[in-house]
Amino acid sequence: MNSICEWLFCLFIIILPFYYDLSLASKTDLSKLLLVNIFVVISLFLWIFTKSKKISIGKIGIILFVFLIITGISTIFSYHRQISLVGTYMRYQGLMTEVFYFVLYLIVLNLIRQERYTLLINSAIIGGIGSSVYGILQAYGKDPIGWEVFSDRVSASFGNPVFLAAYLAMLCPLSFAMFLKDMKKTKWIYAGAFILIFTGLLFTRTRAGIVAFMGGMTMLFLFAGALKTLKDKNVHYLLLCTLGIFILSNFYSKTAIMQRFTAEILHKPKETASLEERFVAPPVGGSGGLRLLMWKGGMDIVKDHPLFGIGPEVLQFLWPRYAPLGYMSKTGQVTGVDRVHNEVVDVAITRGIIGFIAYIFLICFLFLSVIRFKRKEKIVFIGLFCAALAYLIQNQFSFAELVITGYFYIFLGIMDGIKKEQFLLPMKKWFFVPIFLIIAFFSYRVVFLYSADRAYYQGDYKKAIKLNPYERTYYGALAGFYIDRGNYEEAIEVLKDANKNIPDECNFYNIIGVAYQREEAKYGVNRTEDVISAYKKAIELNPYFVDARINLANYYITKGMFQDAANEFKEALKIQPWQEGWIDSLKSIHLTMKSKTAIQDFEEISRLNPDSYEIHKTLSQLYYESGDIDNFIRKCKDAIKANPKDILMRRNLAAIYYQMKDYENAKKELDLLLLISPNDPEANKLLFLLKEEGRY
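Predicted structure:
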């Protein structure tokens, strides 16, 4: 029976990274979840027929079990229990999946013989080789299926380069450790595997993956160096080969990862960028600055939910209330944030301080375990630890996925097995009853999730909702379908049903407002109160939801409620100040009302967004029209500071200085302008005039 389990496990480890279903909208995550579910069920059935009367669990497993219990408690007190149970769409990292992970750990420790652990490791390495080859084929447009295309990065069968990179980064130190362990000629098979997996990692061009690789390999060298296993000249040859590949890869566009690191550090908006592109460039540089803002918002959530957190997978519902204005202004992303791209912060958010302590304790215990381990399998143990460490490192810049987290638990199971320090718990006849009931319930949910997503992908939105009434994507699709066909009442009913199962979803209220508004226009019924109420509810749930604000502002205009419209445009511009159409609308409203507060409104927006060129430009126009020349000059300078390559503001400054007879500053601005645009006709004309008048 053990042999069947072992070979089945090896097959599972190899197939899991490659399996995906093109008939689903969630092609990778949900299909892999189903495969894990099937394997867990089969393994539990096989476990029943083994002669073992005790269940083994190691010290690492006890920590994992405690973390699972904390996840369960967090799910009970979750902001949205159903989502925390199964996970958010296209992620599926809820309590259900955590249970599957822990069962994988138990299977390794209880159904796999220790002498077969190498077989599991080899299976993982084979999977890594296959994924690398698949990714390299994608890079050259040779994907036999061609279901996923990236212009400059590859994802193999993972659906995202980040996940493939994390997977390969885990396997690099493990395959290198097996190379160090093997004293036979077969060691060069591991060397070849390492080189191929590393090459595949380079083709992902993913920074988090490279950092994880470096962290895992550095720790491997530190521990292996203490064992004096790095003195072999063959090791030096392999390291030189690896270094050569890395250096050469940076001269090849498909693998030039260092360009992405330098772009992050030296990030500047391109000179020809649009106003939006210039504005959203984070001041810290690239996506790194945005991550800092996300972590700040995440810590604010922890302060309000300190003990057990908000529950797994529900950040998307609370994020808009805690997101820093800087993040929303820089990205324009007001919905859909379900991770803060740092697992330490994510754990604290979703499982509270208790979960955070368990997570940190696990990391510390793993370090202590590898330091204290003295058995002959030391180098393999180090390799497994470094693979787990690579996983943990990449999760501090990204987030976990089903395959890599499954491998993480499997590797921890092998580590506990090698240590031979398990606790043996008596296994009663009824032991499997509660486990099977739990797994049966989860299997039932997985099958329905799978069927629902297939129905959704095929356009049968009603069936998808019936099978999975807790997925907001399906409701949005059905409501949009009805609205496009003018069936506004049906759309409204669908979204009202959605709000019963998924409360506090801001976009539903926004769509309800759109439906009411179109119904009013089509049938001539008075829906003013309903429209305004729906949009206001969406804004209440998500103060940064600019779509709802703009919809409401435009609706106010149709009703002659200009001051209310101005307020909504002003709030929207605080979030996305680069929107020229909204700026024009706000100016037009003030002109219509003959308002004297236009400058006040735009100055308020400017204080919150000091880097917004368009707001400064608008204020310069308003000050000029009001005859306030000093503030006109101030705003021209602010606009130039926000966009040093701008010509219009320099031209305006030069002209006003000329009118003020400040010829020195006029000449200075013209010289700077002509450095940017040497053939500018107005600048050359004014410069000629200054020269003719003998002003310089």
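Summary: Strands lie at 54-57, 423-426.
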